[in-house]
Amino acid sequence: MAARTAGRRDAGEGPISYMVVVLLCAALALALALSGVSGRVASDIAAAVCRVIQVAGLVQDCRTPNRDGQQAQRDPDEPTSGCVPYMESHYLEETVGIPVRYVDVRTNSRGTLQLIERVGPDGKRTWEVVDFTWGEGGVGTPDGLSAGPVGGGLWGGLSITNGKVYGGFTSEREARRFFDDLREHRIGSDIKFTLRTNPITGGFVWLGSKLPWIGDDIDDFMGGSEPDRKPTEEYMDGGLTGGFRADLNLSVGPAKLKLPFKGRGWLLTGTRVNNTNGQTTHYFTQRGEFEAAVQIDVSQLVRTLPASVRRQVQQGLDEGVDVVLDMIERQLRSQYGNGFVLLPDQRAQMKAQIKLNPSVGFNYKHRGGTQWGVTYDRNGNIVGISQVQNGQDIVYVRADGKFEGKNSIGDKTQISAGGQWILFAQRTVTQKNLDYSSAEDRAVIDRYLRDGDDDAVEQAWEDGAGTMSRLTYDNTGDTSKLEGRGSTPRRRLGFIEIGRETERASLQSAHYYKEGQGWVPWQRCR
Questions:
Q1: Mean pLDDT throughout 14-39?
Q2: What does the alpha-carbon distance between residue 302 and residue 254 come to, in Å, rounded to a whole number?
Q3: Which sequence spans correspond to the domains of the chain?
Q4: Which end of the chain is more exposed for a tag (fewer CB within 10 A), N or C?
């Protein structure tokens, strides 16, 4: 009877009581703000006010602040690692192939600069800049190998990567200024980057940087000098790499189609050192990427158009060749003086030897990889293990142009240039961690280190051990590539490929795994 009477009393007086509660709490909050009481007392009073409002039914949750002003009642399933809401990446990559007797010696290098925004466990946002370069060396089947409508080849070798992380930026403006300066210094020039990073020429540039009096100037000019800021983390890894390329050429009615397929992969082991807390992570990575495309030869389609339209298109192609010849003429003038001019007859002869084949199409690329890491503190004690899975799907629209030239004695030159623009791209990063300070996690980690039992670790995560997070990104960006090949009647002269890419990844969704509920929104990461 008393319970029913109380219920009726709550129902009738509730709205007035809630209004009084709100007014009192608002007055107390204002007094608290004006009083200047200490942080500990203020946080305790704020917690009491919140509990009063919770009893009134106006809030769902009051988390008790700790002495640092952070929430003490933290969800144990929420990852304590920082998450990344935004990342911007720029890279420059070059590949040089040098033909020898039966194979091509293949060298490759890439320089990448990344600007990363992070949200820490305390909710604070910081920014970091990542600077890494890889170099590869190997052998492959001869470039241009073909059998009927199918061409391509295989290659394999060794890869080494050296990276540095410059963290601790408290504002995006400061981090971006450092990022832009370092990007221009590292990968601003195709020629200097190729000379500095290619395994064939890089050693000579390094020796030049060690010369007395002028070595520092050479290093700075070539983009090898380090910034004044000290890195917060450094890493190095190496291992096996390889890939393949296949081109299928088809004719469908008046159209000529080219279907390129290519892929590459890496098996790497490395070490990452945190210079701030002294932790060291030893990791193993397996990753790869696959790309398929459809290219349509526009010049073949032009031939099916009415004569008047063909003349207009051909005129446009001729103007494109004239632009290239103008560039050549300006370059020669810079070397031989302003008196150098390509005469009309010379232009006509060169244009007759140059054939322009434009093409358009679509590309699909998939990237994926898994990294396992074991982390130790500065004293060599185990901190935990981690797994990061990375998957990305990209659809590009592309446009390419190919210039082919041949002189009277049979020397051939082929230059291709093209670009790709992202139509759709999505990237998903899943990170899993086990903490050695947890008794439950410790048993799994010990078993993994003793037996290498990956399945047991995966099952432990599925059963709720450790923490798991999943971040999904929307990507935008573009790529460009320039390729050159040459040959004489007697031999091939090799090839060079230079590519650039810009990519921006913005967080689309963030979740972490909670036992009994599945994937729940990760609010702190937003």
A1: 53
A2: 9
A3: 2-55, 83-525
A4: N
Mention every residue, 6+ apart, whose C-beta is less than 8 A from residue 108: 93, 94, 95, 96, 135, 136, 137
Q: What is the C-alpha separation between 225 and 261, in angstroms, rounded?
A: 38
- Taking CB atoms within 8 Å and a gap of at least 24, the contacts of 199-205 are 199/107, 199/109, 199/135, 199/136, 199/137, 200/96, 200/98, 200/107, 202/109, 202/135
Structure-token match 């008790």, residue found:
64
Element (H, E) at 465: none
What are the pLDDT digits (tens) for 267-285? 999 999 999 999 999 999 9
412-429: pLDDT as tens digits: 888 887 888 999 999 999
What pLDDT, in 10s, does the model give residues 129-167?
A: 999 999 999 999 998 888 888 888 999 999 999 999 999
The two tokens of residue 464 are: 């709720």
CB 398 within 8 A of CB 477: no
- Determine the pLDDT at residue 453: 82
- Per-residue model confidence (pLDDT) at position 63: 47
User: Is the predicted pLDDT of residue 250 greater than 90, yes or no?
Assistant: no
Distance of alpha carbon 208 from alpha carbon 217, whole angstroms: 10
Structure tokens at 246: 């296949």
Whether the Cβ atoms of residue 385 and residue 361 lie closer than 8 Å to each other: no
Question: Cα(79)–Cα(428) distance, rounded to whole angstroms?
Answer: 17
Output the CA torsion sign for 165, 170, 172, 176. negative
Question: What is the C-alpha separation between 386 and 213, in angstroms, rounded?
Answer: 47
Contacts of 316 (CB under 8 A, 6+ apart): none
Q: How many CB atoms are located within 10 Å of the residue 234 CB?
A: 16
Q: What is the DSSP letter of 230?
A: P
3-state SS string over 424-462?
A: EEEEEEEEEEEECCCHHHHHHHHHHHHHCCHHHHHHHHH
Using CA of residue 209, residue 89, residue 287, residue 262, what is the dihedral sign? negative
Which tokens sit at 126? 């910081």
**Helical axes 344-353 vs 307-336, angle rounded to 10°:** 120
* Nearest CA among 520, 385, 522 for reference residue 460: 385
Q: What is the rounded distance in angstroms from the CA atom of residue 477 to the CA atom of residue 499?
A: 14
Per DSSP, the residues of 36-103 read ---HHHHHHHHHHHHHHHHHTTS-S--PPB-TTSSBSS--TTS--S-EEEEEEEEEEEEEEEEE-SSS
Helix (H, G, I), strand (E, B) or coil at 128: strand
Residue 64's CB is within 10 A of a number of other CB atoms, namely 12
DSSP string covering 332-377, please? Answer: HHHHH-TT----HHHHHHHHHHEEEEEEEEEEEEEEEEEEEEEEE-
User: Quick one: average pLDDT of 99-119?
Assistant: 93
